[in-house]
Amino acid sequence: NAGVMQNPRHLVRRRGQEARLRCSPMKGHSHVYWYRQLPEEGLKFMVYLQKENIIDESGMPKERFSAEFPKEGPSILRIQQVVRGDSAAYFCASSPLPGEGYGYTFGSGTRLTVV
Amino acid sequence: GQNIDQPTEMTATEGAIVQINCTYQTSGFNGLFWYQQHAGEAPTFLSYNVLDGLEEKGRFSSFLSRSKGYSYLLLKELQMKDSASYLCAVSSNDYKLSFGAGTTVTVRA
């Protein structure tokens, strides 16, 4: 029973390029959450998605960031025209049901470095 | 807004006990979580408290006082593998977690 799979583990992008981060939830989990962890800071909520729906994107920056969770395939967090400040670890978590916070399973994260 | 405070670092000796405190001020409360995170790895769930009191699970225990906005994680019989970052997180609704910056625990022989 594979856990939450994120890829790539490490991603280097030049300023102005696009970054695509992928997250495959645990089998049977249809709820996906993205968090960002900046150096020396706690994990910050970005977005909550169910299949084909964005439920809460209150933590997403208004520009350049978008997320999707299509009917088929992984959830994607997309960052357009990356800047140095986007360098962080991006974690995805999944759960079987909403309100099951104790059921969160986190992936190992994607470490984005913008040069 | 959410404000969650925990110490930045703690050091303890193998076999000892360490208590990591967490204080919080949040606009809603739906439970408090502790996660363990080794460097470069995923946070892993340790404990969940929603009612006041102590929850014990093996060498780890977690305590909650909702009236004081306070929790602690107690690690007993410390082992070298317990060296990690410990994250306190509060759920303000059904799904959103607000995390503290984490406490890095170093276990020395």
Outline the structure in words.
The complex is a heterodimer of chains A (115) and B (109). Helices cover 0% and strands 49% of the residues of chain A. Chain A is built from no helices and 11 strands. In chain A, strands 2, 4, 5, 6, 9, 10 and 11 form a 7-stranded mixed beta sheet that branches. Chain A has a 4-stranded antiparallel beta sheet with strand order 1-3-8-7, with no helix packed on it. In chain A, strand 5 and strand 6 form a beta hairpin. In chain A, 35% of the residues are buried. The mean pLDDT of chain A is 92. Chain B is mainly beta and 109 residues long. Helices cover 0% and strands 57% of the residues of chain B. Chain B has no helices and 11 strands. In chain B, the strands form 2 sheets. In chain B, strands 2, 4, 5, 9, 10 and 11 form a 6-stranded mixed beta sheet that branches. In chain B, strands 1-3-8-7-6 form a 5-stranded antiparallel beta sheet, with no helix packed on it.
Return the average pLDDT of chain A rounded to an integer. 92
Provide the β-strand percentage band of chain B: over 45%
Query: Helical percent range of chain A?
Result: under 10%
Instruction: Characterize the biggest β-sheet of chain A.
Output: 7 strands, mixed
Largest sheet of chain B: 6 strands, mixed
Q: What structural class should be given to the helix and strand makeup of chain B? A: mainly beta
Helical fraction of chain B equals under 10%
Number of helices of chain B: 0
Number of strands of chain B: 11
- Counted beta strands of chain A: 11
Tell me the greatest interface: A-B, 26 and 24 residues
Note the gap between the termini of chain A: 36 Å
Distance between the termini of chain B: 41 Å
**Mean pLDDT of chain B, rounded to whole units?**
94
Low-confidence sequence ranges of chain B: none
Task: Write the element-wise H/E pattern of chain A from the N-terminal end onward.
Answer: EEEEEEEEEEE
- Hey, roughly how much beta strand do the residues of chain A contain? over 45%
Shape of chain A: globular
Q: Roughly how many Å is the radius of gyration of chain A?
A: 13 Å
